[in-house]
Amino acid sequence: MPDRMGRLTRWLTDVRQRFVQADDVPVPVTEPPERAPVLGPVPPPPADAPAAPEPDRHPVPKVVRDAAEWSWRLIIIAAAVAGVGWLAWELRVVIFPLVAGLLLAAGLQPLVRRLRAAGLARGPAAAVVFIGFLLVVVGSLTLVGNAVGGQFQDVVDQAEEGLQEVRNWLAGPPFSIDEAQLDRYIDRAVAVFQDDSSVTEQAATAATVAIEILVGLALALFALIFFLYDGERIWTWLVRLFPAKARARAAAAGDVAWLTLGQYIRGTVLVALFDAVAITILLFILQVPLALPLGVLVFFGAFVPLIGAFVTGTVAVLVALVTQGLLIAIVVLAGLIVVQQIESNIFQPFILGRMVSIHPLAVAVAVAIGTLAGSIIGAIIAVPIVALVNTVGSYLASTRESSPGP
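Above: the chain's sequence. Below: its structure in token form.
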């Protein structure tokens, strides 16, 4: 009996230990199976989601509508430009001298700045530059006048001989025009120009043009004085006319435009000097009369881009033809073409390409439009206007892109 009680006690103890060990073992927790999606209505998209574009039911295609909107805007811009051009042409006696004074001031302003940096006041610096400019211009014209006066009679005598050779050439084959027929043709031409009404109209027109030139010259010099002396304060006053938010950009754009204009004037002067010196040396070598005055004429003609120096150079060809004969005239023409090719393809791109970035096609179109709109003056100021529009437009576009948004 005691043995059975002992075995029962050991069995109970062993069972109790097994229950204790079973309580210490963690029971794995199984996750409930995923529930199958419940089919139902699709929830609406969030409020900030973009709505689907509606189909275009307009009877006119969008491309045509965009073209129409661009067209009427371009028409308004063209009308505004035409209106400004018409007003400038009507006020040309005032506008063109002011533009001429502005161009001269852009070329002379660096000299004023250097004198002021050297210690001169604003007034004396402007006066020294202005007087020096007048002395250079008047001295050049005096030198040309003395050269023309010394050789003019020789050129007239040689021209008469050349005209007699032309008459003899026309009298021979294939024209066979005798002197009597040629005299009748000359008399008819002279009679056309000697008509009383035409002579009166031409005299009135010449007097009007002379008065306009004198008034314009006086106004240009007067404006040049104040542009050199007070140009900075004039521009400051103009900037104040802009809205307050746009004044900083307007002032910066004006500085860029003034720098471009000055670079263009200085580059054009260098190109004109190259043409004039090259043609003058050629005429001296060929012993063509009036070489120096013809070189000065080429210099002033070179301020009209592309065609100015060539057109004024043809005068040298005519003088060579009358005074030296056909062979020398052909040599002068060939030299003129070579100089123009060197200037157009090498010298001008090297000088103006660094100063003002304008495509040659834009220059040609600008000169053509300027010539049609304003004759020689329009051709002279067309390229600077294109350079200013290009530079200022590029600057404003770049600053607008880089400026932070609102």
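The mean pLDDT is 77.
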